[in-house]
Design a protein that fits this description.
The protein is α+β, with helices and mostly antiparallel strands. About 15% of the residues lie in helices and about 45% in strands. Strand 5 and strand 6 form a beta hairpin.
């Protein structure tokens, strides 16, 4: 019986062996296929993870480079004139932002606040004509932000904004402009700003009629020192559009100022008449200049091209146009400090002529700066052809000097001295300034010769940051 059982087992194994072998082979191949599929999935996940790690690594490196570029930025190197040599903040290699500013505080003393022209051209624009001496502290703090973007082909665009805080508690604005163009070729600019300076006063700190604004330059009843500034810009009642072009040593500029033309006149009075503004003026101010290493010369004109923009109504009820204003000027500059910053001389010679309604004005000025001392002289001649005396009295001008038509001469001497690097700080300077103005009259309808004078001094604290 045992032999039969053993024999049956052997026969069973012999019969089932091929089937078991076939089953085992199929199961092994299936397992191998599954392992291969899992291996491929693992490799794909590993490759995806590696790409994600590389991308994150690149982002981290770029972010660290940007942070390092900001942390490693050195303080701005500032010249004595307050213009920075380097960029303050670099976001990347393409767009640049520059944050800067300056403090300009003055301690003034003057003979009286009724200057020979408008006193409203100064930092503190609330001064009124009067006979009393003036002692005060005035000035402002400016914070500027400039943006600049440049393509590889030299084309660029940018902006500039310069809000200021006055000591009288008001917020004002110096420049707010957008510009674009091609470097060393051409540029277009729009906004609030000043165009080419046709009557530079060098290191001026305190000349009462040297305001850098297109408003309130003419104060009725006082002498007018015309300096080619009426169409220059930085107006409180309008804006500029400017185009310029460089061709070798030649420079061309056309500035257009659109504004309320009566804003030129303090209290909107001209020759004893109260002005009525009918429409805005459009000043065109073309300039051509030639610049070499040290010498430069420029000629320009400015004219209002809008007729009957403002005027007054006479006794007959007729409107009298007073908006005719054509100005011409030339200036020459020698800048020896470019080659010799220590001992070089900077000298300016400027002249300007205004042909206006019922008035002709001529001005010539010269100044020189050597080392830290500046000295200048300005001569102005006014010829008033018509003046409404009753209008002046009705306007309650108690201290007006012009009370009838005639010719008037104004002589002004101004000086300043720079004390640089106070407390060994390159960006902290103190300026000492003084002036004296003398006015002489040869009146047409009177035998009386009259004269008047103004004088004053200033200590200016200037800090750049």
């Amino acid at each position: 019986m045992r032999k039969i059982t053993t024999l049956a087992l052997l026969v069973g194994l012999a019969v089932s062996a091929p089937a078991l072998a076939a089953s085992s082979s199929a199961s092994l191949e299936a397992r191998m296929a599954q392992l291969e599929q899992r291996l491929q999935q693992a490799e794909a996940r590993a490759e995806t993870a590696e790409k994600q790690i590389q991308q994150l690594t690149k982002q981290d490196v770029k972010r660290e480079q940007q942070i390092a570029s900001v942390k490693e930025a050195t303080p701005v190197e500032v010249k004595q004139d307050g213009i920075s040599k380097d960029k303050l903040l670099t976001l990347n290699g393409f767009d640049n932002l520059k944050l800067y500013g300056d403090v300009e505080f003055n301690v003034d003393g003057a003979s009286r606040s009724g200057q020979l022209t408008s006193v409203r051209t100064q930092d503190n624009k609330n001064w009124k004509p009067g006979t009393h001496e003036r002692w005060d502290v005035n000035g402002r703090l400016l914070i500027g932000l400039d943006g600049y973007r440049r393509n590889d082909n030299g084309q660029f665009s940018g902006f500039s904004v310069q809000p200021t805080a006055d000591l009288n508690g008001s917020m004002t604005l110096d420049d707010a402009a957008f510009f674009f163009g091609e470097e060393k070729d051409w540029m277009a600019k729009i906004g609030r700003f000043e165009a080419y300076d046709m009557f530079p006063l060098n290191q001026d700190t305190f000349v009462e009629y040297s305001g850098n604004t297109a408003n309130d330059l003419y104060a009725d009843g006082y002498g007018y020192v015309y300096m080619m500034k009426e169409g220059r810009g930085r107006s409180d009642s309008g804006g500029n559009i400017m185009l310029n072009k460089n061709i070798g040593n030649w420079y061309f500029e056309l500035n257009t100022l659109l504004e309320d033309g009566s804003a030129l006149f303090a209290e909107q009075n001209y020759h004893g008449n109260e002005l009525e503004n009918d429409k805005n003026v459009a000043y065109l101010r073309p300039i051509i200049a030639w610049k070499a290493d040290a010498f430069s010369v420029a000629a320009a004109m400015e004219t209002n091209v809008v007729n009957n923009a403002y005027g007054y109504t006479n006794d007959k009820g007729d409107f009298v146009d007073q908006s005719k204003r054509n100005g011409y000027g030339m200036t020459m500059t020698w800048d020896g400090q470019k080659a010799d910053p220590e001992n070089g001389v900077v000298a300016n010679l400027s002249t300007a002529y205004m042909d206006a309604s019922d008035e002709k004005d001529f001005t010539v000025g010269a100044n020189a700066l050597w080392k830290r001392f500046e000295l200048g002289y300005i001569y102005a001649h006014n010829k008033i052809e018509d003046f409404n005396i009753n209008g002046v009295r009705a306007s309650d001008y108690d201290d007006d000097w012009f009370d009838e038509p005639g010719s008037y001469d104004i002589h002004t001497i101004h000086a300043s001295y720079l004390i640089p690097n106070v407390m060994n700080m390159e960006n902290f300077n103190v300026y000492l300034g003084a002036y004296i103005s003398m006015l002489e009259a040869d009146k047409t309808y009177s035998s009386d010769d009259d004269s008047d004078q103004r004088y004053g001094g200033r200590v200016r604290f200037k800090y750049y940051f």
